[in-house]
Amino acid sequence: MKLTYTFVLVLLLGLAACGAASQGQEPIPTVVLEGGSADFSSSQTSAVASTSSDARASGVVVPAQEAKLAFATAGSVMNVSVTAGDEVTAGDVLVELENATVQLEVEQAQRTIRELTSPAAIAAGEQAVVAAQKNYTDAKNKVDSINSRRTDQATIDYYEAQLVLAQKALDQARDAYNSTSSLSSADPQRATATTNLYAAQQTFTRAQANLNWYTELPSETDIAQAKANLAAAEAALQEAQWYLAELKGQDIPAEATGAQLARLQQAHDALRAAEEKLSLMRLQAPFDGVVRAVNIVAGEYALPGQVVVVLSDVTNLQVVTTDLGERDVAKVSLDQRVTVLVEALGVEIDGQVILISPVADTLGGDVIYKTTIALDSLPDGIRAGMRVTVQYLR
After folding, report:
1. CB of 357 within 8 A of CB of 369?
2. Is 244 buried (19+), middle (13-18) or exposed (0-12) by CB count in 10 A?
3. Among the listed residues 343, 332, 311, the one whose alpha carbon sits nearest the alpha carbon of residue 89
4. Which region holds residue 79: left if phi is over 0, alpha if psi is between -120 and 50, else beta?
5. How does DSSP classify residue 90?
6. Residue 144 pLDDT level (bands cut at 50, 70, 90)
7. Helix (H, G, I), strand (E, B), or coil: what is residue 83?
8. What is the percent of the chain where pLDDT is above 70?
9. Would residue 291 be called left, alpha or beta, if left means φ above 0 and alpha means ψ between -120 and 50 degrees?
């Protein structure tokens, strides 16, 4: 009987131990802190446990953006405008290299452009367009006239009749002139005959030319010359218009040409190149943030790629996990909801997975994957570097 009692007691103790071990494998429910109090009801605890997965990781609060700024070119530091802890705005100059020579290049390029785009230059450009337009119109009229030489028979008959009359008048004038051959050139009768003969000759020549215009085709040389003149006039007008548009700051096509236009565009290119060179000597803030570190002072020589300023965006914070194992990462997906316990503040924040690293790291021989968490809100007192615990929700 005593042996039976001992066996039952051992069996009961074994079952109790198994029950305790089984309970130790259950996920630990995330504790939701409200107002810094750790007093939770059993219903709150069971509600969290029902939505939590068994994926959990430690992490750290980090800036959403952090930039390690360096110069692309070497040079002596002329000015350092910030110190660690300063708040800066995007575009602020943080550190500047010696750049007096480059500054002169910028100013010279600016003067050249001011000269090329002055009111006088614009007025000259407008005059050039007017002159080019007239040349184009004249050349086009010439081509049109060549193409329209042929006309109706009535017009040809008219000019033939005009030529007959002009020939008759010329013959009469010549006879009258010949009848005065014995008179002195100072005689009024001979002078009148001479004048009439000249006028009759001019009338006949015009009549002959008019008739030839409508009855004779132009030569291939005449046609080619007229078309070539028109093409040249059209190109000159287009280039004058493009140049004037560039002077006025208007848009022109990429294929625009012209000697004056090329000169103006080269001046703009020279200014852009000088400004780009100057910008390489000025380290500017790429975004609003706080200067975390300054690693150089005025007078030092900066090398290309040397980090001289570290800038952090502390108004937008995220969480990066540090120990999510390879088994747990399979339970995590993009856009998955999480709760983040900020240990130093004793508060929880809701968040969402926005990035899962595709490449593993190692920690103490274990394979881990970093995940990035976007926070729904930022409680008072939260700072970059604070440690957190992330609970991934189902």
Report:
1. yes
2. buried
3. 311
4. beta
5. T
6. confident
7. coil
8. 85
9. beta
Give the whole-angstrom CA distance, residue 125 versus residue 259. Answer: 13
User: Mean pLDDT across the chain, nearest whole number?
Assistant: 86
DSSP state of 219: P
Q: Which two tokens stand for residue 282?
A: 């000025």
Tokens, residue 222? 């005449």
State the virtual CA torsion across 389, 392, 393, 394 in degrees, nearest 10: -160
List, in sequence order, every residue forming a beta bridge with 63; answer none if it has no partner.
317
Task: Give all domains of the chain, ordered by start, each with its CATH number.
Answer: 30-64+316-393 (2.40.30.170), 67-97+282-312 (2.40.50.100), 114-273 (no CATH)
Q: Work out the pLDDT band at 52, boundaries 50, 70, 90.
A: low
Going by pLDDT thresholds of 50, 70 and 90, the confidence category of residue 210 is: confident
The DSSP 8-state label assigned to residue 185 in this structure reads T
Q: What is the pLDDT of residue 132?
A: 96
Whether the pLDDT of residue 350 is over 80: the answer is yes
Q: What element of type H or E holds 391?
A: strand 387-393
Q: Evaluate if residue 233 carries a pLDDT over 50.
A: yes
Count Cβ atoms below 10 Å from residue 390 Cβ, excluding itself. 25
Give the integer Cα–Cα distance in Å for 389 and 28: 12
**Left, alpha or beta for 193 (phi > 0: left; psi -120 to 50: alpha)?**
alpha
What are the structure tokens assigned to 243, written together? 């140049």
**In angstroms, rounded to a whole number, what is the distance separating the alpha carbons of residues 238 and 235?**
5
Question: Are the beta carbons of 104 and 202 closer than 8 angstroms?
Answer: no
Residue type, 393: L
